[in-house]
Specification:
Strand content: under 5%
Shape: globular
Radius of gyration: 26 Å
Oligomer: single chain
Strand order of the largest sheet: 3-4-5
Distance between the termini: 70 Å
Largest sheet: 3 strands, antiparallel
Structural class: mainly alpha
Helix content: 40-55%
């Protein structure tokens, strides 16, 4: 059998088994099965953990069955029937106990929230009466008590940047403005639905205009996930949260380089889509498209002729992870638009709060079917959402929830990564910035320090921290963003800035080649991406030829970060290799925000330099 990315002797790339993915290259039958996407690699790890847990549970059940009295007098089939009946009874009893425990936790949480809100209502009435009487307000600030029916006040973190520790030895060899500009263009190339009149991607057109919910709801819009045409809600929401966080923190940068309006449009696109997906108070559509059929077709989205099923979570089938991440994204976007469009900001916040109530009341993992499975639990997404809602509203009820989740789900533990499946490291940092409590700082630095050189994670010979062969650049980039954020608040400033600069500069070209399409020296020209590798008018046969062609993609996918090299820094620009050449929305999110942080550092250094008059 030939190796990955190489043609076999019969002209077809062989099937590649990788956990949940079986990838085959387009054949000539017209259906175009091809390399199935590899961007959801860690879902395989989650599947293995579930299999182990299920196996242990089954072994426990078997042991219990074996320990019971045997009936030798009846037929074998009757004994099997009794064993099956006992097993079903035990499973039913176990589910009932789980249901009761969940109901008790939900009731306790609801009672706690009701008490806190009642207290805030009472405090607000006191303040309002004192204002009416012209009395002086003492210790309680109105901005700390947003409640239902009362206009929510702006709540902001005041950045702490220790300028005295800034260094003059830093160099900035890359054009960060160009990188940010092109990264935003990548997200425009990922747009699904009816494109706006100011569309800048000339090789993209309207697509998937019939995306509908199970009752005909309009689900058009949003971003295609990667090189495919599926709209996965979880990574889209995480990407939106991280992009919005970068815009909140580095708004001055986007304004300075003339990208503020385009960036607002960038995050508004998925935000509008999430609002459409929130079809009822306790109902949310988390996916449109079937990956098993979509991944077998190579062609442009404009001519996509496959069925587009939609998938939702509700009270009977909860999804605290995907709904919680979406609540966080909309809360972050609400902060962004607070100064730009107050009515839209409030709309985003209303949906965020409703989604959070849904996620926290009906607790459970969404049915990911092996694609984008959250690890290790829904707790990190619930705490993440609660922290962002506290940031957006200032309501202590949300802070209390975040603190409770932090304990209940053991969120002090060091996470595998900062990504779509685990927001915990970002939540730890955000909680420290919101509260100033040392425990959050300690837990965050315990995580991030593992990514520094000479620590727990391996590095390539040329300096890339290497978490996984699947998209190693995204992990380096997302943690670089956290490092720069932490440095802005005086946390291990020198070490974290050095780490972030080296990782981002590795991606931009320090090794002699760029890993960003359309930027720098020797950038990738063959990303594993359908739209950029074909034409809007291309039929299936033409698309097949373009997929197999050794030539560069006919369109430049500006700004897209590819998966990256192997552990030895080796990289082959191969369209058929989804491991190294896949692109995805989450690949660029932390990367773009980290580049914005570096641009701010560069701007500050330029302002500090004295003007020498000759």
């Amino acid at each position: 059998m030939s190796q990955k990315g190489e043609e076999s002797t019969d002209g077809n790339v062989p099937s590649i088994q990788n956990g949940n993915h079986c990838e085959t290259e387009p054949d000539g039958d017209g259906d175009h099965p091809e390399l199935l996407e590899g961007e959801n690699e860690r879902s395989r790890r989650g599947q293995r953990e579930r299999q182990i847990a299920q196996q242990e549970e089954e072994e426990t059940d078997d042991e219990t069955e074996d320990s019971g009295p045997e009936n030798d007098t009846g037929p074998a089939e009757t004994a099997k029937d009794r064993q099956r009946q006992r097993r079903e009874e035990r499973q039913k009893a176990r589910k009932e106990r789980q249901r009761k425990r969940q109901e008790e936790r939900q009731n306790a949480r609801k009672e706690k929230k009701d008490r806190e809100r009642e207290k805030e209502n009472q405090q607000f009435e006191i303040i309002r009466n004192e204002k009416l009487q012209g009395e002086t307000i003492l210790d309680v600030g109105e901005e700390d008590m947003p409640i239902e029916g009362v206009e929510i006040q702006e709540f902001k973190i005041t950045p702490y940047v220790n300028d005295s520790n800034d260094r003059d030895d830093l160099t900035f060899p890359y054009d960060y403005k160009e990188v940010i500009h092109k990264s935003i263009m990548f997200y425009e190339a990922q747009r699904s639905g009816m494109l706006p009149s100011n569309n800048r991607i000339e090789w993209r057109g309207d697509s998937c205009l019939n995306d509908r919910g199970q009752n005909g709801e309009d689900l058009t819009g949003g971003w295609f996930d990667a090189g495919d045409h599926i709209k996965f809600g979880l990574p889209m929401a995480w990407s939106t949260t991280v992009l919005a966080w970068g815009l909140i923190q580095y708004k001055e940068v986007y304004s300075e380089i003339g990208e503020l309006e385009t960036m607002l449009d960038c995050i508004k696109w998925p935000a509008d889509y999430f609002i459409k997906c929130h079809t009822k108070e306790n109902e949310f559509y988390y996916q449109v498209g079937d990956p098993h059929t979509d991944h077998k077709r190579w062609g442009p989205p404009e001519t996509l002729d496959l069925p587009r099923p939609s998938f939702k979570v509700d009270e009977q089938t909860p999804g605290s992870d995907v709904v919680g991440e979406t609540a966080a994204a909309l809360a972050a976007c609400a902060i962004v638009f607070q100064d730009k469009d107050d009515s839209y900001s409030k709309k985003l916040l209303d949906h965020s709060m409703q989604l959070y109530e849904f996620a926290s009341t009906f607790v459970g993992k969404y049915p990911s079917a092996g694609y984008y499975d959250v690890q290790p639990s829904v707790g990190n997404k619930l705490a993440w959402a609660a922290a962002w809602l506290y940031y957006a509203t200032g309501s202590k009820a949300y802070l209390s929830d975040a603190e409770t989740y932090y304990v209940d789900y053991n969120l002090k533990a060091r996470g595998y990564c900062f990504g779509w499946d685990n927001s915990n490291p970002g939540m730890q940092l955000l909680m420290y910035l919101l509260t100033g409590e040392a425990k959050y700082k300690r837990d965050f630095t315990k995580y991030l320090d593992c990514w520094l050189p000479n620590n727990k994670l391996p590095y390539t010979p040329k300096g890339l921290v290497y978490r996984s062969e699947w998209g190693p650049l995204r992990y380096a980039a997302s943690n670089s963003f956290l490092a720069m954020l932490a440095a802005d608040y005086g946390i291990n400033r020198d070490k974290y800035i050095d780490f972030a600069m080296k990782q981002i500069h590795y991606i931009l070209g320090d090794t002699g080649r760029s890993f960003v399409c359309g930027f720098g020296v020797n950038p990738p020209q063959r990303p594993h991406h359908r739209a950029s590798s074909t034409y809007m008018w291309a039929d299936r046969e033409e698309s097949r030829k373009l997929f197999l062609s050794p030539d560069p993609n006919p369109h430049i996918l500006y700004g897209a970060v590819v998966g990256g090299p192997d552990i030895n820094d080796y990289y082959k620009d191969d369209r058929q290799n989804y491991v190294t050449n896949e692109v995805a929305c989450d690949y660029n999110a932390g990367f773009q925000s980290a580049v914005a942080a570096l641009k701010q550092l560069q701007m500050k250094q330029r302002k500090r330099r004295p003007c020498i008059i000759l």
